[in-house]
Every structure is written in C-alpha cells, then in structure tokens.
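Reviewer has doubts. Consider these tokens.
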Amino acid sequence: MTRPSRRRSISLVASILACACWPAPGYGGESVPPHDPRLLTRLVSAKHVTAQRISGPQLEDCRPDFTVDSDTIECYPAASVFMAPSGKWRRELLDLVAQWGWLRGRQGIGPVFEPALGIHFRGDSLDVDWLLSLEPLSAMIRVQGIPSATVTISKEDHWALLSLMHQAFPKDSQIAARYAAVQRPVYPGCDCWVEVPFKAPYKKIAAPQDTSGCYAESPVAIKRDPPIYPEFAKEAQIQGEVVLHALVGSGGEVVQVKLATRVVGLDDSAVHAVRKWIFEPARKGGEPVCTWIEIPLEFRLP
C-alpha cells in the first residue's frame, strides 16, 4: 500500500478515536457505537470483502504495519478465504455492529483474544479488518492491522450475529452448533406483537386489524413530531427508510425502541424522534394494554 493511502487510513482512525462518542482514556464504562456514518458507508461500499476462517493465532513475527497484496487478513493463518456473501449480508452485519458499545483500542477485551472468523473490507484507501472471537463472543476492528476498537458482545445480540456467521460459513460445524444452541430473542415487557408488518400503524385509515388477540383497538399516535434530517446526511446524499419496532405502553408512552431496518446516518434521528411520540394506547375489553408496533420513517432528499 502506498504511503499516502496509509496516511488517509490512519487519519480516519484518528477521527474515530477523537469522536465525542468515545470514553476518555482510562474510562472503563461502555460508550455508544463508533457510528461514524462515513466509515460505515465506506465499509458497505468496499470493492473487495472477504470472509476468512482463522486457523491459528497471530504470527509472532507480524509487524503492526505489515500488509499483504491479497485480500486475506494480515498476520493470521487462514483455513479458508472466500468472497463474503451478498451486499445485503454485509449491510446487515454492519447494521448490527453499529449498535454495539465499542471501546477504544483493546479496552474491555481480555488478555486472550483469539479470532476465529474475520471479514476484510478493502478498496481505494480502505483496509479494515473485523475480527470475531467465539470464546467469549467478542469483536475487534483493526485499520491497517492496528486495533481501533473492541467490544464484548451482549447475549441479546448472540442470535443475530451467529445467524449471520452461519450464513457466511454454512459448512463450519462449530458455528452451526453455536447457532443452534442460541434461541432467537423475544421482545420483553409485553405479550402483544403484530406479527405481520404494517406501514402506518399510527394512522386511523388502513390500520391493521389485530389477529393475535392482544387488543381490539389499534394504538394511534396523537403526538408524532417528524425526525430531523441530519445535515451531514443531506450533504452525503444519504436517504432511505428506517423501520422501527416501538413498544407502546398502556399509558401511551413509548417504552422501548428497536431498529428493524437501519440506514446508517439516519438511525439516531429516527429513534430520537419516535421516543418522544405519544399514543392513544391499544385497548382490549375497553382497557389500555401495551403492544409492539412497527413504524417506518422515510428520509428523502428533495
């Protein structure tokens, strides 16, 4: 890799680590994810994305600035290296990654971090590794072989992550066994959930009829301020539909919000807006009940 390209990548790392979302040096608590939209957008659009089953520890004589000409992950011996699944798979992985509480460098990672799987994003000045350790389930992002951020993955995300890894490595018996052993999570706090997605649950017209027996009257939003379109997203020409799953309490307040379909750079604005919405709650037998609903929000450039 040329020296100018290396400088660009290092400056990218510096911009991430300098972001206010990172904890101060020495701080042990979790931070919000490294959601620099430009970095994630670049990873989604990387020209070469390879998946690698790592077969051993990092080579002892590997230098931090060591690079190779192929699309393998530097310094790790590979049992297999192949093109990663489709672009949709890559976006789903990055969407999940963006939700985690990443820590600067190697903070929060135990002394033994043994990657079992790796995804390598490469293109233009991009040279980024995403490494996954199975025991315990933890991940690392490296730029040009230098650790940038680490995270220990919460149990709530084990199913989604192992599902993606099973898609990428369908013949790997270890991943298949781990995936089969983890149950798909259910939303806590409310038994009511409309299984069939609908596009406008907060509108009286065309509101779906509940068939699950959870309620007789659908929830209706009575205060729904639209999300703010971030200026950087406009400048970067980012648009699309963010789909949220919101838990509406029996008092009409939004108790919890989950991202169902993400658009990098727009998610935070969508979640922030919906958390302030007020509903006329769903009712059953005349009594208010809590329920999960689906809310799509469109961000379109003029």
Q: What stands out?
A: Residues 183 and 224 are 35 Å apart (CA to CA). The chain has a mean pLDDT of 74. The chain has two domains: 3-181, 186-302. DSSP finds seven helices and 14 strands in the chain.
